[in-house]
Specification:
Protein name: ATP-dependent DNA helicase PcrA
CATH architecture: Beta Barrel
Oligomer: single chain
Mean pLDDT: 81
Distance between the termini: 25 Å
CATH class: Mainly Beta
Organism: Oerskovia douganii
Largest sheet: 5 strands, antiparallel
Shape: globular
Helix content: under 10%
Pfam families: PcrA_UvrD_tudor
Structural class: mainly beta
């Protein structure tokens, strides 16, 4: 297991800074550590208040507050 840098990135226990939050649009493909590959179906708000509704197929559709969610835009 590799060492994790403190203060780097964001995740479930670490808030993202506004520059770390991906800018998403409907139809974008994303990946999530727990749910895998998904497609953005709705986006609300902006910056640290951005919320995305993402369809993860078999895992269902999830509504994620992006400042707390480890999603990566593909």
């Amino acid at each position: 297991m590799g060492a994790r840098q403190l203060g780097a990135g964001c995740g479930p226990l670490r808030r993202c800074k506004e520059g770390d939050i991906p800018s998403l649009a409907i139809g974008d493909k994303v990946t999530h550590d727990a749910y895998g590959l998904g497609t953005v179906v709705a986006v609300e708000g902006a910056g640290t208040n951005a919320v995305a509704k993402i369809d993860f197929g078999a895992d269902g559709t999830k509504r994620l507050l992006l400042r707390f969610s480890p999603v990566t835009k593909l």
